[in-house]
């Protein structure tokens, strides 16, 4: 009986151990007992049904296979609202039309707190992004609105196009690439351009380093880093180190600008001219870059993928861009006759109002390939969703798949079909840019980037999708909603095959 021997040895070792060991053990045993008791606690009648199984068994699937896990939860409980526990945190998952109406309107539900525990992807540096008080956040959002004023956004047009031209030049005369790497990389550059400064955006080496650091933050999110953020696990230390390095890059750029005494014409200058606290500036750049670059990069990657798999939509989009160019002819030829230079003369208003085809392509891409789950924490009083109590302090999740993949609202939901009619009757029938109390504050910038990048690509290249064997695929891969970052299909299962056209980029 090796176990009994082991236990006996352990017991006698313990008796001889010092006070600290006994004390620690006593605490562990106490916690275990508390835990067992809490498992037998009577469920309140208005509490959502709890997932079967031990609470610890929810951790792995919640972080690694979220889409399957949440779907299984609705199935296993047979309810449209259910709950489970992540350690001591009560998490309530809701679905259905009435639930989402309450969810998006409820005043007490807080996005930032929900995001922090359940996602943990934001860099947390004390006093910078983690304890960002409401005041600081409001200033940051105000500055983001300033960046998207007509005049500032218009100023960004040539810069974003020039970045796109330079990177697409680097793609050469043809070949194939993984859109989830190459297109994402391009969007990362244009987003850095829009949100930071020339010192960073003009230096491809720094931008590449920033991207590596941001990816580390995203992929370094393990259950432990989210649930036990104070625990110095290797993953946590790596994240902290990456955050520190991002901080240094941003702080260095600020110092360089201040020392040079030469004002530039970019977002950093706007922030400096607003006389904001330096921590606000760092928070603006670090926080928004991560909120913006990944969502926009994911969308652009899928947009190029869907265009490559749907030749008729590709043709429609190309025609739209060509029409736009002919509606805004050059008054005098540009010195080098380049496409990007011509696109740069198109006014903001035209990009926004005269591209209905691209608008519907973006809309459909977000519906089918944005694996978002809205997460909140109830900071207000108890509230009820579908007659189930959501206590103060608990977390609430609304998975976007509930509405965006609902066959009642979107027949044959996995089919990419930008011609679907826009349903304006169903409450929150489309939440690609959020809804109710929290809507995306970067929509204008994101849409503009998406339109400019895809326009230049369509004018400069021919492209289609190939599968792993290099065979032309006329169906795009199915978005994998279990990948909570990019909905990315299995690695290597899909490539963009492209050929440069005669047009000068
Ligand atoms: C295609 C690109 C993007 C998509 C699809 C997108 C989508 C969304 C969605 C769905 C939400 C609401 C989240 C929720 O309710 O849980 C949101 C919030 C937000 N987005 Fe975006 N976003 C994009 C790009 C950007 C960019 C480029 C920025 C900034 C430069 C940005 C800044 C924000 C901010 C600050 C919030 C939080 C708003 C709040 O606290 O009320 N987003 N976004
Ligand atoms: C800022 O730069 C843009 C081009 O990127 C230019 O069109 C605009 O006139 C400049 N604004 C100022 C105030 O210099
Ligand atoms: C012309 O093309 C070059 C690169 O070939 C680019 O750097 C430059 O900005 C373009 N000039 C104009 C006026 O668009
Ligand atoms: C800003 O641009 C939008 C559309 O692009 C337009 O509807 C609006 O009138 C413009 N605002 C100002 C103040 O020019």
From TrEMBL:
SUPFAM superfamilies: Cytochrome P450 (SSF48264). One of its GO terms (biological process) is sterol metabolic process. Its cofactor is heme. It comes from the Eukaryota. The keyword Iron applies. Heme binds at residue 440. The keyword Transcription does not apply. GO terms for molecular function: heme binding; iron ion binding; monooxygenase activity; oxidoreductase activity, acting on paired donors, with incorporation or reduction of molecular oxygen. Pfam families: p450. PROSITE patterns: CYTOCHROME_P450. Keywords: Heme, Iron, Metal-binding, Monooxygenase, Oxidoreductase. CDD domains: cytochrome_P450. Belongs to the cytochrome P450 family. This is Cytochrome P450. The lineage of its organism: Eukaryota, Fungi, Dikarya, Basidiomycota, Agaricomycotina.
């Amino acid at each position: 009986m090796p176990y009994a021997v082991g236990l006996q040895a352990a017991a006698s070792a313990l008796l001889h151990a010092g006070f600290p060991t006994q004390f620690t053990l006593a605490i562990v045993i106490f916690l275990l007992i508390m835990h067992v008791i809490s498992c037998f606690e009577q469920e309140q009648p208005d509490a959502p049904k709890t997932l079967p199984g031990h609470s610890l068994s929810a951790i792995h699937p919640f972080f690694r296979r979220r889409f399957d896990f949440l779907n299984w939860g609705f199935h296993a409980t047979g309810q449209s609202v259910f709950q489970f526990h992540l350690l001591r945190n009560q998490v309530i998952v809701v679905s259905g039309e009435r639930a989402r109406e309450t969810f998006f309107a409820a005043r007490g539900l807080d996005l930032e707190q929900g995001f922090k525990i359940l996602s943990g992807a934001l860099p947390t540096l004390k006093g910078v992004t983690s304890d960002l008080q409401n005041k600081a956040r409001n200033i940051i959002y105000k500055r983001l609105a300033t960046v998207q004023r007509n005049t500032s956004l218009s100023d960004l047009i040539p810069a974003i196009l020039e970045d796109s031209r330079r990177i697409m030049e680097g793609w050469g005369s043809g070949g194939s690439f993984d859109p989830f790497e190459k297109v994402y990389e391009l969007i990362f550059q244009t987003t850095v351009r829009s949100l930071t400064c020339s010192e960073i955006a003009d230096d491809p080496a720094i931008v590449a380093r920033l991207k590596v650091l941001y990816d580390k933050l995203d992929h370094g999110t393990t259950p432990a880093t989210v649930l036990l953020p104070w625990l110095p696990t290797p993953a946590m230390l790596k994240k902290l180190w990456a955050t520190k390095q991002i901080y240094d890059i941003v702080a260095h750029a600020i110092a360089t600008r201040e020392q040079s005494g030469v004002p530039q014409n970019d977002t950093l200058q706007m922030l400096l001219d607003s006389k904001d606290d330096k921590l606000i500036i760092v928070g603006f750049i670090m926080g928004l870059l991560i909120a913006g670059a990944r969502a926009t990069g994911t969308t652009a990657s899928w947009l190029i993928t869907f265009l490559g798999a749907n030749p008729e939509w590709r043709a429609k989009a190309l025609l739209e861009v060509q029409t736009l160019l002919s509606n805004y002819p050059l008054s005098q030829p540009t010195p080098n006759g380049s496409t990007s230079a011509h696109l740069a003369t198109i006014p903001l208003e035209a990009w926004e109002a005269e591209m209905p085809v691209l608008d519907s392509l973006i809309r459909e891409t977000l519906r089918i390939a944005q694996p978002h789950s809205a997460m909140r924490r109830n900071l207000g009083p108890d509230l009820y969703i579908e007659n189930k109590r959501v206590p103060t302090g608990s977390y609430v999740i609304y998975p976007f798949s509930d509405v965006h993949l609902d066959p009642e609202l979107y027949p044959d939901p996995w089919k990419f079909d930008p011609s679907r009619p826009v349903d304006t009757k169903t409450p929150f029938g489309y939440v690609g840019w959020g809804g109710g109390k929290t809507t995306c504050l970067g929509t204008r910038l994101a849409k503009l980037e998406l339109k400019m990048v895809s326009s230049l690509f369509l004018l400069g290249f021919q492209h289609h999708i190939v599968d792993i064997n290099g065979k032309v695929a006329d169906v795009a891969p199915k978005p994998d909603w279990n990948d909570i970052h990019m909905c990315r299909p299995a690695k290597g299962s899909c490539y963009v095959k492209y050929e440069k056209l005669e047009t000068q980029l």
